[in-house]
Automatic annotation (TrEMBL):
Protein name in the entry: Endonuclease NucS
Key words of the record: Cytoplasm, DNA-binding, Endonuclease, Hydrolase, Nuclease
Chief localization: cytoplasm
Lineage: Bacteria, Bacillati, Actinomycetota, Actinomycetes, Micrococcales
Function of the protein: Cleaves both 3' and 5' ssDNA extremities of branched DNA structures.
Keyword Hydrolase: yes
NCBIfam families to which the protein is assigned, alphabetical: PRK03298.1
Species name: Microbacterium profundi
Compartment(s) of residence: Cytoplasm
Homology family: Belongs to the NucS endonuclease family.
Endonuclease NucS N-terminal PH-like domain sequence ranges: 2-104
Gene3D superfamilies per the UniProt record, alphabetical: 2.70.180.20, 3.40.1350.10
Domain called Endonuclease NucS C-terminal: residue spans: 111-229
GN (gene name): nucS
EC number: 3.1.-.-
GO molecular function per UniProt: endonuclease activity
């Protein structure tokens, strides 16, 4: 991972156009090729970014750019859509590269981990006649909670949350995009499962063809293995 703090201006062109005027920002170029542009605010969300698959190339500034103080230009282009992120760098304050190694992945909290385990045991809640392929099914950007196949053999990727919000839908969307490239799985359907799903998340999910599934945690615990229990 390369971390660069620089005075820069950024332009995004493609399906939409956006401009970030000159300011000091953090540029994060990850090992998967993605580039994220961060400011000192906005919490964890980047101001702009390019997701993989994409390529980064450096360009020599034009005469007019060089005259304005630009010392380097980065162009990050998405391989599928052709969308481009162009970064004009005026001054580099910090530049470092770090090998992070293989990440073990996010450790689910107790309730979320239990929901995943219970739903894996009760996949008929996802689709009648469904069978479990694997929990924590690997992708290049992290594991999707469950991979199952319905009675007809179609692949279904399931993302599980305690509270389902827009970020969870975006996460599942990224998984589906990657999984859909595997000819052994495609087409892959998506199910967004949570104890509570916010209205905005439901609208976004349904607009993307992702089915929402509300989970009753107490009910799922009560019928685990088909044997009612108190605890």
């Amino acid at each position: 991972m390369r971390l660069v703090i620089a005075r820069c201006a950024v332009d995004y062109s493609g399906r939409l156009n956006a401009h970030l005027p000159l300011a000091t920002r953090l540029l994060v170029h990850k090992g998967d090729g993605s580039l994220l542009v961060h400011s000192d605010g906005g919490s964890y969300k980047p101001l702009n970014w390019m997701s993989p698959p994409c390529t980064l190339v450096t360009e020599i500034p034009g005469e007019e750019e060089a005259g304005a103080g630009v010392i380097d230009v980065w162009r990050v282009t998405h391989k599928k859509t052709g969308d481009a992120l162009r970064v004009q760098i005026y001054e580099v304050l910090h530049d470092s590269a770090h090998e992070l190694g293989i990440d073990p992945g996010l450790q689910k909290d107790g309730v979320e981990a239990d929901l995943q385990r219970l739903l894996a045991e009760q996949v008929e809640r996802i689709s009648e006649g469904a069978t479990l392929v694997r929990r924590e099914y690997p992708t290049a950007i992290g594991p999707v909670d469950l991979m199952v196949r319905d009675a007809a053999g179609a692949a279904i990727a399931v993302e599980i949350k305690r509270r389902g919000d827009i970020d969870g839908v975006e996460q599942l969307t990224r998984y589906l995009e990657l999984l859909g490239r595997d000819p052994h799985l495609a087409p892959v359907h998506g199910v967004f499962a949570a104890q509570e799903i916010k209205p905005q998340a439901r609208v976004l999910a349904e607009d993307r063809g992702i089915r929402c599934l509300v989970l009753d945690y107490d009910d799922m615990k009560g019928i685990e293995s088909g044997v009612p229990r108190l605890f």
